[in-house]
Amino acid sequence: MSDPLHGSLLLDRATSTHLSDLKYAKLHSPKMKSVYWRYFGFPTNENDRIITKQNVVCTLCHKVLTNHGNTTNLRAHLQHRHKELFSKICEENGIKVPQRKPPPKYPRNSQTTSMAKSETVIHRIKEECVMGNESSNNSMPGDEQLLYEAMIPMSYDDAIITNDQFMKVEVGQGSDLSTVDTDIDIVCPQTVSRNFNCIEEVDPFLLQDTLANMIVLDLRNIDSLYDPGMSTFIRQISGNLAIPAEKRIATLIREQHYNKFTTLSTELKTHSQTKEFSFGLEMWRNVEHKQFLTVYFNYISEKPVYSLLNEFYATYEISKFMHVDALFQDFNLSNCSAVIVNYEEDDPIKDYLREHNIPILLSFDVVSDKCLNHVLTLPEVLPIMEELRDIIDRYSSEICSKDVEIPMINPDFPWTFYELLKFFTEQVVWPDEMDSIVSSVKEIMESINGLLVSLDTLKGEEIPHSSMLSPITLKIINKRFTIAEKDTPLTKCLKSAIKGELEKLVIHDNHLTLSALLDPRFHRLINLTNLPHVVEILKKKLAIINECEVKDTPGVVNSFIKPFTQTGTTKKSNLELFFDISDNVPKFDSEQNIDCIERELKRYRNEVYVSLDGSPYQWWNQFGKAYGNLQKIAKIYQCVPCIINMNFKKPIYQQIADHNKRFMLTSSCLDAILFLHHHNGNI
């Protein structure tokens, strides 16, 4: 069986949703206050799961519309396509529809006004298709068709270049550079047909919604709408229509935030009163040097399938006058399993959480960054990095003359240093006298690659669960960071430094050890060196759950429950390949006259064998009754991811772009903009 630790990185198993999965006979109608939402719903697949919230479907005519986070286009659709129903809605709910302004009257034989009118023309491509059995002259083949409506530029003649091609340059003794492997595929652009329509006026409500959505989607400050260039552009497309006031845009964004936040907040607060959950805390600063705390909420969803959900909850400005208990006053902290943070410094928030006996875990992407920073600051590595930068600076003009971009360093993203090392060793051929520095840089890269493998393994999973950390880290340490006789002094130093950080932050953490133990996929992949200590922790957890002392009673085994084992025909997942597991079920020695918890634990480790592509939530729900005490405790560890949010799955340049956009936000509507941006699927 191949071991990806010595080969390519694991591939992402995420699958795309096809149009054939859409099921319009049964739409999911969201619980919104607006009456217009009664006639629209989100498309679902065969399992009744919402496929996308970017589009909504009319329940009357099955027209697909874009979900802008408001009801403007929903109202317009009902008003123009279902006029009788719209009139009835307005009468029953007392809705007054503002009349449109009459078109401006231009003087006859006026060439000036005619030219001004022609400047308000908006070039738009619009393709409207009807779905189901509805007939249309422009219908496309198939039963399911979508509505696309977007603004397009005047020309579309840019050549398309494949991103997987790069240029390799060779540096000579002087300024002699020769280009190697410069073969780049050029794809001729396809002709795009356009239909141009003249729009004589712009709906003021539509303009307000569009500007508000632009602020949210692009993470912009509201005052950027009133920059000279933006103001001129808006006036060009809206004619004589006045630009909405800044307060009006801010009010609209706050209203959208309030509507969505109220629904989500009620759901999360209700969940926290009865079930386990975890928090994710992300500390950061903006362009005003103000400190903010972004809070994520993680919980288990049982319907339609058991799954771990990660929700953006709120952003708070941190100051010395704030009350920490106000951040969590609406949640039942006794049900909080753990808190994942992105900073190591102690502060009043961490002290408050420790007072409530809540474990504090460091996000794994921060763990990898910490290991990488530790390597780059070693006395053995610092001179190498300084020499590398000096060489690149000396040859930068020659390299750039060959249209090769040198990676930029960003201190907030340590993996940009790795990109620089990779560029130095793989994309540039240096003279022979530089073999020593090139060899040293390669040793650093090979040592860091183990961290990269662990990150890419987690990125390949749909949900990077905290129970994966201990077994994955243990595997990486044994395969990549164990010192061998052939290792050079530099390699030994690097391996020892990374291994020490991983053991301190991951392997020695009791919460992560128990999380892996109570995940039926990983309990056989960790070594319990201190079993009595583990049993004591489990006893305390069970005592808290039962609110009484644990009684030494034998566990009850339900005879109708069969041990969940892996069959020979089961397809191995990426994790199976990663761990290179044999089909033989490991056995553990059993003992007599031992405690109830310990007896269940030993029986659990002897009998249970679950494929690594299985779901731990479904297993405990279906087969956990045979291990009743462990089943109660396992719920505590199932709702904790290993990272704060899913942003770390993005490529490094996208992470930097998102970071820079958020950094530039001011305090005005900051929480509302970030919340709406995240829940529109852009973070």
Written account of the structure:
With 683 residues, the chain is of the alpha+beta class. It folds into four domains: 1-97 and 123-152, no CATH class; 264-361 and 644-682, no CATH class; 367-497, no CATH class; 512-638, no CATH class. The protein is built from 21 helices and 16 strands. The protein has helices at 72-81, 83-93, 111-118, 204-218, 228-238, 246-274, 348-355, 364-376, 382-400, 415-426, 435-459, 469-480, 489-507, 510-517, 531-546, 574-579, 596-607, 616-623, 628-638, 652-663, 670-682; strands at residues 23-28, 40-44, 55-58, 64-66, 124-127, 148-151, 160-161, 168-171, 177-180, 186-187, 277-285, 291-301, 307-318, 336-341, 360-362, 428-429. The chain has a five-stranded mixed sheet with strand order 13-12-11-14-15, sandwiched between helices. Residues 1-23, 105-167, 174-199, 548-572 and 583-594 have low confidence and may be disordered.
What spatial form do the alpha-carbon principal axes imply?
Answer: globular
Q: Please report which band the strand proportion falls in: under 5%, 5-15%, 15-25%, 25-35%, 35-45% or over 45%.
A: 5-15%
Q: What's the gyration radius in Å? A: 30 Å
Our measurement of the CA-to-CA distance between the termini, rounded to an integer number of angstroms, reads: 37 Å
Poorly predicted tracts of residues: 1-23, 105-167, 174-199, 548-572, 583-594
Please work out how many helical segments DSSP would assign: 21
The percentage helix is 40-55%
Question: Largest sheet, described in full?
Answer: 5 strands, mixed
